[in-house]
Specification:
By secondary structure, the protein is of the alpha/beta class. The protein is built from 11 helices and 14 strands.
Amino acid sequence: MVYQYPVQGAGLGLRRSLCGPLSSVSPEQVQFMEVAPENWINVGGRYGAALRSYTEKFPFVMHGLSLSIGSPSGLDWDLLRSIKTFIAEHSIRCYSEHLSYCSDSGHLYDLMPIPFTEEAIDYVAERIIQIQDFLGQRIAMENVSYYAAPQQEMSEIEFLNAVLNKADCNLLLDVNNIFVNSINHRYDPYDFLKALPGERIAYGHIAGHFEEAEDLRVDTHGADVIDPVWQLLDAAYAQFGVFPTLLERDFNIPPVDELLMEVDQIRGYQRKYDKIEQGDPQSLRKPTQLEKVLEKNFRLRLSLPFNGLSLSSPHISETPKPIRRLKVSKIAVWKSIEAYFLIISKLLLPMASQSLSPSLTQNDGPQ
């Protein structure tokens, strides 16, 4: 059975300050949105009306802030009842929370790390099971950023996987958090990624962070996504296939056009793997022997005018080999011409599309 994601494409977190600026954005530009329920439950007036207009226009997921799944205090059943109502009122597709805690007889207003211990696995998994039973649906737990690991008995990935398996819940895969933690706790982010249960991914997050020092990163959601994090997202799609991914931006929010460029960058990576999965007949067809000879002889460095642009391929050798004369029939000649144009089109079209796209720059999207 193929897992059906709750949403599709590239998403953006809705903040109150964005209600006006995003009003003209279409579902073609942003495929889904996300809210923190604590910021919107029982909100009326113009903000309540704005939220309703967005949830009627876009598919929505929600990402909680204060469920405090690892807290020594009891679960907040009043909050959970409000969340259940909110899910129904706005047709929320997925509810996710942080695998952390933020309260103990009062809110701490920060996400604290749960000790990586067997006891904590049992405790947290049982609380997730209770929540899922109450809501009547699976929830997704997010791999969080953390800056200390008190009472650690196992690695982060071992703890995360154990909780997911024991609770039988889904995963909100935060790519930036993997990168931040890999710097702060000195592990290979790609090894961490490979060890995740891809079948449990509900959707993903990507965001920017702050570089406090060479060996210390702080997860802030207040900056542009950096290239190494984009590369990690690319690796995640290669590992698990394309999954819905949302851009988080909580402060230092740039103009909408700049936000949409990053959302479109997510779509760029997704389209790259969508094309591979769908299978382009021309790219999958094995070349004939004649095409192999022609490709070997015609892989020259190109500098050709195209709509006023000079296109040069970095993948072609500087010095061409001499073309070998072939004694062929007229049919073979025509086939060689056809093959030549096929090869040229394969070389030129990717460069032309990259050069002509108004929304991508040299570092915007998959190379």
